[in-house]
């Protein structure tokens, strides 16, 4: 596979770290964003100790200006972005009748507006170079809904609506646009859920266990090679069989 420049948002998180590692293992030049210097420094040192040289550029994906600066920073350091993985995400769970405007808007901004903010600065270059990969990390809860997550499910379902439109607009330019929808993965986001709730979640997963970040990274990598160039507008569920719809 040709070496490409990959930008993975939220690379310092559980799933993002696995995606960064996987893409680097495949020979790509990988970059991610950070927000907090200390946290970023620790993460980068851990990655370097494992032999990974991941480029880090500061930026909040919820800000159009910072997202654009992040892309330009990566371009300066590594060259034009060929692969964008929109992975950064947050939750602010509560039932809708108690949901405050901020809980709604923070989740929509970080999980969905970020997809505009990050993709807009890379798409014209991909079109000009006639090659690109844009991959959204959505969620099983965007497919089936989830009690206490009207904000998150709306944002995650919106990501796939974005995917299938962008896929149509850019198919003739060698750009594929796809979604990966993880089920419950044993990262900090899920381990923060109370243990009794987690046990109930695991009981609903036919494989009988939480997923591993590496299993999401594998799905992301699947969309990248030239052999995958006819796969666009797809949503790949990686959820241990918990939800088998679209
Ligand atoms: P983590 O909380 O471990 O990581 C989230 C990452 O996103 C961190 O690097 C965080 O950076 C970054 N981030 C958050 N907000 C912003 C922002 N405004 N600007 C830039 N970066 C930001 O989450 P996971 O690894 O578990 O999840 C990754 C993705 O997978 C998310 O989109 C999530 O919704 C999705 N997902 C996760 C599932 C799971 O079971 N874990 C299931 C289904 C989907 P910082 O350290 O600065 O906060």
Automatic annotation (TrEMBL):
Positions of transmembrane segments: none
Keyword set includes Thylakoid: no
Residue span(s) of domain Ketoreductase: 4-183
Keywords linked to the UniProt accession: Oxidoreductase
GO molecular function: acetoacetyl-CoA reductase activity
EC class name: oxidoreductase
Highest taxon of the lineage: Bacteria
EC number, UniProt record: 1.1.1.36
Family recorded in the similarity comment: Belongs to the short-chain dehydrogenases/reductases (SDR) family.
Protein's name in the database: Acetoacetyl-CoA reductase
């Amino acid at each position: 596979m040709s070496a490409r420049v990959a930008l993975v948002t939220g690379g310092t998180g559980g799933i993002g770290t696995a995606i960064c590692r996987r893409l680097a293992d495949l020979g790509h030049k990988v970059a991610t964003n950070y927000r907090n210097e200390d946290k970023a420094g620790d993460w980068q040192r851990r990655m370097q100790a494992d032999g990974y040289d991941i480029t880090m550029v500061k930026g909040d994906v919820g800000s159009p200006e910072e997202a654009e600066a992040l892309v330009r920073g990566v371009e300066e350091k590594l060259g034009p972005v060929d692969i964008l993985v929109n992975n950064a995400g947050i939750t602010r769970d509560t039932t809708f009748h108690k949901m405050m405007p901020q809980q709604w808007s923070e989740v929509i901004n970080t999980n969905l507006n970020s997809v505009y903010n990050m993709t807009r600065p890379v798409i014209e270059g991909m079109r000009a170079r006639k090659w690109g990969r844009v991959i959204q990390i959505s969620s099983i809860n965007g497919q089936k809904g989830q009690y206490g997550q009207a904000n998150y499910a709306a944002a995650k379902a919106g990501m796939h609506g974005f995917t299938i439109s962008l896929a149509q607009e850019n198919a003739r330019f060698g750009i594929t646009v796809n979604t990966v929808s993880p089920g419950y993965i044993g990262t900090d986001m899920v381990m923060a859920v109370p243990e009794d709730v987690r046990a109930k979640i695991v009981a609903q997963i036919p494989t009988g266990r939480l997923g591993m970040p590496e299993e999401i990274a594998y799905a992301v990598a699947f969309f990248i090679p030239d052999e995958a160039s006819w796969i666009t507008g797809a949503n790949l569920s990686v959820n241990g069989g918990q939800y088998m719809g679209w």
